[in-house]
Amino acid sequence: MMSMLIFFRKPLVFLFLVTFLLPIVVPSLALGETFSPSEPEISAGSAVLIDADTAQVLWSKNSKEARAPASLTKM
């Protein structure tokens, strides 16, 4: 029994490491491939992204176009 345990020790350690380390490594690799700094796909007619701390406009779509508000109910 002991000789069998010694014989299977390395494969068991390898299997253990693959089982627990592979799920950590694979999602990070997949995330790197899907991230693209291109312009986001937004179906709205206009949009603005503003940094709350600096009030700097980070991104805008048709920000100079005059548009009617969607709703005045909450104002």
From TrEMBL:
Q: Which GO terms describe its molecular function?
A: serine-type D-Ala-D-Ala carboxypeptidase activity
- Tell me, what is an example of a GO biological process annotation in this record? proteolysis
Q: Name one Pfam family in it.
A: Peptidase_S11
The Peptidase S11 D-alanyl-D-alanine carboxypeptidase A N-terminal domain covers 35-75
Q: Which InterPro entries does the annotation name?
A: Beta-lactam/transpept-like, Peptidase_S11_N
- Record's protein name: Peptidase S11 D-alanyl-D-alanine carboxypeptidase A N-terminal domain-containing protein
Species name: Candidatus Hakubella thermalkaliphila
